[in-house]
């Protein structure tokens, strides 16, 4: 029995709107550097750098969210084989039930995540095509003890309900 957990389109659209506002603000800071008496950002080069960083960071975030919104395979699929993850910027693909040792809920900057502890973390890192995505998964492994972190922020399910569904299938 296959269960699809889809992306919450309203959440994603709201985040795209937010990213667009910050990109516009970054462009404004870069091209129309405001005069300020603030001691920290008196130098116009610092203001331009902040603007450029905002455009790069929020532009990338907006791109990832747009890609997520247009992806037909979005969200999570819970099947008899395992969890197929298409929910975030770095998708783990199929995570076999037999590979999952345990699940832990954590909160990072008020954002809840599920950490899926797997028997073979390096295998999931090596699956990634992009060096950038491999680096992100290695950072997850070093920080949380597993490369696989799933956020339910953009999903149509609460993090607790998702954890419950996963735990009943791995026992």
Question: Outline of this structure?
Answer:
The protein is built from 5 helices and 7 strands. The chain is an alpha+beta fold and 171 residues long. It folds into 2 domains: 8-70; 75-170, no CATH class.
How does the SSE layout of this entry go?
Blueprint: E1 3-5, H1 9-31, H2 44-70, E2 75-78, E3 82-86, E4 93-96, E5 100-108, E6 111-118, H3 121-126, H4 131-144, E7 148-151, H5 159-170
Antiparallel strand pairs: 1-2, 2-3, 3-4, 5-6, 6-7
Helix pairs in contact: 1-2
Please identify the structural class as seen in this structure.
alpha+beta
The largest sheet is: 4 strands, antiparallel
Order of secondary-structure elements? EHHEEEEEHHEH
Strand order, biggest sheet? 1-2-3-4
Helix content: 40-55%
Uncertain segments are none
Q: Please report the number of helical segments.
A: 5
Indicate the overall shape: elongated
Quote the beta fraction: 15-25%
Report the average pLDDT across residues: 86
Number of domains: 2
The total beta strand count reads 7
Walkthrough of the structure:
This protein has 171 residues and is of the alpha+beta class. The protein folds into two domains: 8-70; 75-170, no CATH class. It contains five helices and seven strands. The protein has helices at 9-31, 44-70, 121-126, 131-144, 159-170, and strands at residues 3-5, 75-78, 82-86, 93-96, 100-108, 111-118, 148-151. The strands form two sheets. The protein has a four-stranded antiparallel beta sheet with strand order 1-2-3-4, with no helix packed on it. It has a three-stranded antiparallel beta sheet with strand order 5-6-7, sandwiched between helices. A hairpin with a 6-residue loop joins strand 3 (82-86) and strand 4 (93-96). Helix 1 (9-31) packs antiparallel against helix 2 (44-70). The longest helix is centred in the middle third of the chain and has 27 residues, at 44-70. The radius of gyration is 19 Å and the shape is elongated. The chain starts with a strand and ends with a helix. The model has no long low-confidence stretch (mean pLDDT 86).
